[in-house]
Amino acid sequence: MNLIKYEIFSKVVECESLTKAGERLNLTQSAVSHAISSLEREFGLSLLMRNRSGVQLTNNGERLIQPIREILQLNEKLNQEIAAIKGIERGTVKIGTFSSVSIQWLPGIMKQFHELFPLIDIKLFDGNYHEIEASIATGISDFGFVNLPTTDTSLEVIPLQQDRMQCVLPIDHPLCNESTIRIDQIKDEPFIMPIAGCDNDIKRIFTQNHIIPTIKFELEDDQAILAMVQNGLGISILPELILFSFSHHVCIRPLEGEYHRSIGIAVKSLKDCSPAARKMIEFITSWVDRSYD
């Protein structure tokens, strides 16, 4: 069993590219290609299909990628347990995260965590809510920040924080004169909606109020949505955490009623996760509690 080949194969599948996988692993494309070919010869199976747009799994590869990732996770856990027995806290933790958490929480969390546990490396997987849940389920991430409730009910979750939803308008919009915004006041406004995978909470608000919004644009990037609002192309609803450092060029008003995004941590199994991942989860939970106490 060659764990290096397994790691290369897993990274190629994650990146959907030999070149990108090589860059992440600090290997040449030739070395990555050689490792994949060697693994295919070892198994006597074709694992990847290569084409002009990149690579994709064969049927054989689809069946093998999950157990390969599980082997890599177990090997990492084994090494961490050995280090823990020796009194050394070390290892690698892979975290799924979305943009507002990456901007507002993770820099402070990672700085303090690294000061306490300098031998534990942190790797980040950035995505939308659905992508993060999938990365946890498939073993790409050890755990991840998620929007609760998760769509994957098999994941274990730890609630962290309620993030208030706010209405965002151009600074010259008539509704800026209001102290709070009712949902019925914006039903006919051109609306800028986050794309599927990022829009759960906003859709829930409109559904609860039996309103179909007038969607003008759908965008994934939070900063792009804010730039559209800033330039008068529509209004939007976004969580407070996203708006924390962006308040000078748009008008932000609370929604009338109790509308929140619930941020939490999800993991396949807290009992079975690695010592380093468990320690990181405990640290994040404590950090959020202290920050919002």
Brief rundown of the structure:
It is built from eleven helices and eleven strands. By secondary structure, the chain is of the alpha/beta class.
What does this structure look like?
The protein has 293 residues and is an alpha/beta fold. 44% of the residues lie in helices and 24% in strands. The chain has eleven helices and eleven strands. The protein has helices spanning 3-15, 18-25, 29-43, 59-85, 99-104, 106-116, 129-137, 200-208, 222-230, 240-243, 275-291, and strands at 48-51, 54-57, 91-97, 120-126, 143-148, 156-169, 190-194, 214-219, 236-239, 251-254, 260-267. Strands 3, 4, 5, 6, 9, 10 and 11 form a seven-stranded mixed β-sheet that branches. It has a two-stranded antiparallel sheet with strand order 1-2. Strands 7-8 form a two-stranded parallel sheet. Helix 1 (3-15) crosses helix 2 (18-25), helix 1 crosses helix 4 and helix 2 packs across helix 3. The radius of gyration is 22 Å and the shape is globular. The N and C termini lie far apart (49 Å). The model has no long low-confidence stretch (mean pLDDT 89).
